[in-house]
Design goal:
single chain; 289 residues; alpha/beta; Rossmann fold; 6-phosphogluconate dehydrogenase C-terminal fold; three-stranded mixed sheet; 12 helices; elongated
Length: 289
């Protein structure tokens, strides 16, 4: 799929990178960006991420072949409601949100039957925020999760696969429910834990912290409003993850109380081996040659 008119609703790091990447693979793609702040939109135009700017989502979405929601997930439902009347028949709508059940439900309620929605989650980005950090190669080799349902038009899923593949992404599919459950453990919970590790530190301790602490807490620098919406939207799965983490930490406390040196070593070695095996597989995925 090569959209002739692409509407990006929310031109930050991800939205800006989609614009740059889309324009790099198709000179015929006209990108219009929506945002609250005209200053940020002007910056997006200056870096070449968008060709047109709009502070009204209905203006940005009108006439688009493909509309991508790139705002925080808490704004998705309201934006879908606003743009619904101006979408032309056959338009495809997707998103880049880190949760999927709520946006799939909102799309089913808000969008007319003449347009098509499939949830997308490009597993790319960083703790940086703002279009000034956008890159055309942000998605190269990264994984994109599509979440079609039984009601999704297979042709729509196929077209969205082609779109993300053109930006350099690898694709997988799963249900919105499986997505939210699995991503809670490998993305949402780690962010909350990183934030907790920072929050618990005293100023004297932070003065001593080095590279290891920087690496372990890097993602805690993410946008608070964006992550607030994610944690609330997926709170049931995150709660379940927190409870399992508490059980793991409780086991660690028991070993410490018993001064179980051998048990601690085995616990640490098992985690190290699991992490190394995962990292090896991940490198092979990213560098198949």
């Amino acid at each position: 799929m090569q959209p002739r008119r692409l509407s990006i609703l929310g031109v930050g790091l991800l939205g800006g990178s989609i614009g740059l990447a889309s324009k790099s693979v198709s000179s015929d793609c006209r990108v219009v960006g929506y945002g609250h702040r005209a200053e940020s939109l002007k910056q997006a135009m200056e870096v070449g991420a968008i060709d047109e700017m709009a502070t009204d989502p209905t203006v940005a979405a009108k006439g688009a072949d493909l509309v991508i929601l790139c705002t925080p997930v808490g704004a998705f439902s309201d934006i879908l409601r606003q743009i619904s009347p101006v979408l032309h028949p056959g338009a495809i709508i997707t998103d880049v949100g880190s949760t999927k059940r709520s946006v799939v439900e909102a799309a089913a309620k808000q969008l007319p039957a003449s347009v098509h929605f499939v949830g997308s989650h490009p597993m790319a980005g960083s703790e940086k925020r703002g279009v000034e950090f956008a890159r055309a190669d942000l998605f190269k080799g990264a994984l994109c999760i599509l979440t079609p349902t039984a009601k999704t038009n297979p042709s729509t899923t196929k077209q969205l696969k082609e779109f993300w593949q053109q930006l350099g992404m690898r694709l997988t599919e799963m249900s919105p429910e499986d997505h939210d459950r699995l991503v809670a453990d490998i993305s949402h919970l780690p962010h909350a834990v990183a934030a907790a590790l920072v929050a618990m530190q005293s100023d004297p301790a932070l003065k001593l912290a080095g590279r290891g602490f920087l690496d372990a807490t890097r993602i805690a620098s993410g946008d608070g409003g964006l992550w607030r919406d994610i944690l609330l939207d997926n709170r049931d799965n995150i709660r379940a993850g927190v409870e399992r983490l508490q059980q793991t930490l409780a086991s660690l406390l028991e070993q410490l109380d018993r001064k179980d040196a051998e048990g601690l070593r085995q616990w640490l070695d098992a985690a190290a081996a699991k992490r190394e095996n995962w990292a090896r597989q991940k490198l092979q995925e990213l560098n198949p040659e």
